[in-house]
Records
---
Amino acid sequence: MKNGREVVIAGVGLTRFNSYDGQKDDRPYKEYYDLGSEAILDALENAGMAWTDIEAAFCGSVYCGTASGHQTIEKVGMTGIPIVNVENACSSGSSAFRLAYQMIAAGVYDIVIAAGFEKMPRGFIQSTSWPEWQRLMGFNVQPASYAMQTVRYMEETGATEEDFARVTVKNRKNGALNPKARLQKPVTVEEVLASRMIAKPLRLLNACPLADGGSAVILCSKDKLKSKAKTVTVAASVLTSGTYGHTYGGGSVKIKKQDTINYSADMAWNTAGLGPEDVDVVQAYDTMSSGELWDLEELGFCGKGEAPRLLREGHFDLNGKLPVNTDGGLMSRGHPLGATALAQIIEIYRQLRDEAGSRQVSGAKVGLAHAMGAGPNSGIVILKR
Amino acid sequence: MKNGREVVIAGVGLTRFNSYDGQKDDRPYKEYYDLGSEAILDALENAGMAWTDIEAAFCGSVYCGTASGHQTIEKVGMTGIPIVNVENACSSGSSAFRLAYQMIAAGVYDIVIAAGFEKMPRGFIQSTSWPEWQRLMGFNVQPASYAMQTVRYMEETGATEEDFARVTVKNRKNGALNPKARLQKPVTVEEVLASRMIAKPLRLLNACPLADGGSAVILCSKDKLKSKAKTVTVAASVLTSGTYGHTYGGGSVKIKKQDTINYSADMAWNTAGLGPEDVDVVQAYDTMSSGELWDLEELGFCGKGEAPRLLREGHFDLNGKLPVNTDGGLMSRGHPLGATALAQIIEIYRQLRDEAGSRQVSGAKVGLAHAMGAGPNSGIVILKR
């Protein structure tokens, strides 16, 4: 099927990303379903809709346990609608968004909510999602596998630890302008380089902070939307899995994780009928700050190895040619897995509606959000106004 | 959108449901991804398809951890297709099946796989999926909440512990004919009534056994199917959530879980344009044996409180008027959460193709499978040949 009906975002909701552990006054205790339902009610208000308008719900989460979307929606109202819980690691939100998009585009439903939420586990988070041989080699924690990819990236491109520090500095600077971000204090290159080594060459301040949060996006068929003021259209919503490893019955073997990004990016550009040159604002995937650099390259925003230089030249700054992670990215906003990808999409939506306040990218018309998840899986959303 | 394109099942795959803990010769050690990939390869062979024919995968699981579908498919071949992991408790398989069905019916894809797999946790399984007030009251384990519903059912209908024992006896008798079942030995009413009390009035042999397993169903648009011999068509695939509890912005309050089944059943009959009288074989939801009785009533196969008498009269036996749980049901086949609902669908498929061997229901043309999940959510699939 070609793209089908035009799908727009009718409303969005987002909690502050924070550590909701009840340990400090500004960190009240909240469960994932408190955060998820808060975001859903926020989105309904933003869209000017009632809960009974919603025909189906796709809920993204990773660590919340059984039937978490139902638990969350129980706080909003049980109306009998189909609720599907989606677990696609860091791309859970993109995956939930994409199901909502596909269903509306294909005419199955008119109005669907995609919600994401997470109360992050505390302590050592061991990923079960790597192939067995990689786990045996100690790749079952995120920084370890990112460190390997980062070393390779340094060797191939000449990127330095200072370049990765600059990603953190840029994103923390943007995050300081975002009242919803987990961390709202800027840092310097020196502070990043002086922070504790986690997995060489990556340091503590190269890693995104732990945060809990909720996010929600209401998608709607354009012809069913009552108010059409400043509509934001979904130009593409793409989800791919890895293209490396053996293939049953033959097939090529690829080994770099980046190939997956490139593959999904090609698909997204084709679907949208747009190219990197059309994009005004990007939310890239910066779970570790080095990743943002190769992400921008693999998405096609610059050539391989060019991102560190462009970053140094201010190209990706808020007032640069292509502002990246305008809300602070994972690095500053924080990374509650199920809520992250929808938060990225919400930031693009706000930018395209001129609602981003002090971090507004002037005249932004097209934006892209990318979340890379374990598996691997890659979710890209392109919005246009 | 009305039903859309005709969707058929092109092939199915199923492992033996067993305890794959490596503790006995007939219980080799297997991980969930071993079981899931075995079922997928089995389904491909059954459909006469190559893995590269599959355009998307929806994978149902509950306890497998992050990106479990990707881990499973990594053993089959990473071809870049969208993989979405679905967690809808005991209805995870129905939910994965339904997404595949909706996408094909709406023209998004032509060939999609729905897979389910589970390696069940050992020891005490605490459900996180009940509302907080229910958990505080000790309802966070399945037998406790079923016991409450069972007591109510007894009071309303006059059903007895002997009736629940008869459900177990029937299903274990059917399971003895199913080489894929976890338990393949029949039991007597006396044995059930002499088994250990778990949550009054439910005993050990009123509960389904722990089992690991994998299941997979390949769905296809009918016009794309090469071989049309003995095609089985999806007449309905329905998923609903609860209709009880408070509703944001007003709405009615209902309190019995059974209402959810009734609601989804009405939707399924309407979608299929069929009624209970058209059905030749049923896979009902018997996680605790008492549940099968009210399930059959709420699905519309008999009036409220009539199921115990019909059961006593042999109505639901393999050679009765409406054979129920012909493969042994959860009670005998076992209940690996993510794999269960697709196993139910596979049994209906086999029955409608006259491939059920010694448990074949002669001339079966229409069958229904129902899985009830926490949340609550209810998934019904009606197949017809």
---
Amino acid sequence: MKTFELSKELIDNISDLILNKNNKEIKKIVKTLHYADLAELINELKFDESLYLLKLIDSDKTSDVLTELDDDLRERVLKEFSEKEIAGEIKELDSDDAVDILSELSEEKKEKVISLIKDENITENIRELLNYDEDTAGGLMAKELISVNENWSVLKCLREIRKQAKDITRVHSIYVLNKKEELIGRLSLKDLIMSPSKKKIKQIYIPKVDYVNVNDSAEDVAKLMRKYDLEAIPVINDDRQLLGRITIDDIVDFIKDEAEEDYLLAAGVSNDVEADDSIFELSKARLPWLILGLFGGLGSVFILESFEEIMASESLRALFFYTPLIAAMAGNVGVQSSAIVVQGLANDLIKGSVLKRLVKEVSLTILNGIILSFLIIGFGQIVNQPIEMSLTISVSMIFVIIVAALIGTAVPIILDKLDIDPAIATGPFITTGNDVIGILLFFYTAKIILGF
Amino acid sequence: MKTFELSKELIDNISDLILNKNNKEIKKIVKTLHYADLAELINELKFDESLYLLKLIDSDKTSDVLTELDDDLRERVLKEFSEKEIAGEIKELDSDDAVDILSELSEEKKEKVISLIKDENITENIRELLNYDEDTAGGLMAKELISVNENWSVLKCLREIRKQAKDITRVHSIYVLNKKEELIGRLSLKDLIMSPSKKKIKQIYIPKVDYVNVNDSAEDVAKLMRKYDLEAIPVINDDRQLLGRITIDDIVDFIKDEAEEDYLLAAGVSNDVEADDSIFELSKARLPWLILGLFGGLGSVFILESFEEIMASESLRALFFYTPLIAAMAGNVGVQSSAIVVQGLANDLIKGSVLKRLVKEVSLTILNGIILSFLIIGFGQIVNQPIEMSLTISVSMIFVIIVAALIGTAVPIILDKLDIDPAIATGPFITTGNDVIGILLFFYTAKIILGF
């Protein structure tokens, strides 16, 4: 693959050149790099070097590099850039990227930057986009698009496209509007170049067009584009007027980010942290979940203390030895159940009644529980444990994991109904809850069976 | 959003129409549905109904629907379809989708289906694609693409594109070849329609073209396309000859599938299962991880038994009450560390030496551990626990979670170096290991401190 591999040599080389202010040589190297590769390089430099390099390179490349930098570094860089410098970069960007950068600035700095952009077209677009929530279609869309009128001829259309396309990196669909500027269809470039030049757009456009409303959630947009394999989708308002378009590359990033957040959340790491963040940021993302786990653990201390008297009985004391096993099984089963439900909810695969789903989870857990019980009984026989004890432990464990499965299934469904991201349930939340509840149920069930 | 919402009414309506064999009405409804929506509907029907519907609708729609069906249902459907029927569907599909379906058939049925396709162009493409591993660029690519020669004029180029484009749903880049059929660049449709018709392609093509080798891993292809925001990428062999192209919609699906697999794996669910799979499939995906957890739990039984004598001492017995807390903390910290490392490895963010990373994790864990210790000591004061016991538990816990963090960090890095998917480490693997090791370390540290 013709991939760029960031090498230590390149980093050292650039560092040296910056130290010696050898701007000519730096520019020569930078010229050969794609902006995404350059951003990767800059991420690795010392902050002063990064700043030096960013100020040295051409403005149109700087602006693209800015969109690709690590969030933390970009934040620091923007603090060091003057309003005028930022305005210069913003002008070079597509409206969606421009807004992404602007929204990282303080309210005051943002206003100042916008006031420094003299092109009214740009500021109008930016001001509009800044109004939308970043998790909506409006927050993902860009204003740059190509639209044609249904009454134009192919020839006029080609001419207009040439004009409009100047400001646009990539031409996706061409959107067709009627007199009232309402979106009525689309035109494929392929059809356009294959049609005689006198034909009217009216005769060749495709009236079937997918679109999203500006207020639709980003998640729904991603789902729609993925389902129908769309590379771009127009965004309209409630009056069907065309406001912008969302392209697949933004959706790819969105899907990837969402998946990473869910994955980290499931492991008890909140916010959007990365391995290279500072210790304090990492601690902030991890400590709350550990404290939650700690409270669960302290809850178990209470439960176990309340069964302290059975420590005196040599035959019953074995129950204590099994508590970590029970806690682990309760946690594991709960996490499995909730992960499958969370995944299903995300893909709209959870159909039928909640009751049916719970019944299925219980059946599955009983099946797994019986198999696990054989292993426990076998282990008991090997270590010469009384068979009543092995049976008690097995039955109690099955009971515990059934409840764990029910909790693991129900919690995400309830969270989803309450419009809370169910992914939060798969993590330490379920593990901790099931640990405590599992241990409690285990001792109570054993107490009933063994009658102590 | 103009989204299709699968309603119970529609399902019931179709079921009734199938029961009454009202084919005319069924066809009328099916005609209004996008194939992805139709697949969603068919997924919800009874198997016999699904089969009836699939055989009723037009072949070109059936083939598209087949590519979108749930894997399990498609497998069952293909078993019921004759070789001739499958061959008919395959012919309608792009080569990459055709191969996806073919590779689900038995070796014998596959050969028979291919022999029934009379178009040699198609069978040649299919036979070539069947050779590639599905996790490589070759496994993702399709043969359908548009290529032009550098010596053609814009006019000839447009004519040739019209010819080639007939078989192609969407025109992405146009690839430019030299006399030796080597890939030398690309041509944007935009540039093509903006150029005078007599110009040579040579004069307007873009020599800078990203490409992947047919043997590159699918993951690397996804990373590359995401990084450079590519919508399609050409695939070449070692001689730079153009073999096919990969489009972004395949990559979107790949990224989504990978993320889901990692998420489920982290929760202890292997294979690609969904909430609606059968109980036995779900059990097969979940039981192995539970058994792993069980063995870990049985390991803890041994460890705790070996400390049985301290149950007799009222002052030491409290250590037992804290075992679930210690196990939970060890598991949680380990999972957090490994999740961050796994995520970092996936995004090439783990830079610098392994030693530096371990030092960072340890510092972070000490910071978190100290804060957690204050909570444990506070709790101890409230429940009137001797301060030596609280301190012993705190110190032991910090020691335990440091080791857990080291294991959580090191295991994914080692797995990655061994070319094993490190995502496997975040799940029950780390939790179970850290549970057992944590409990062992906890009791030994306490033993040393308290001198029992």
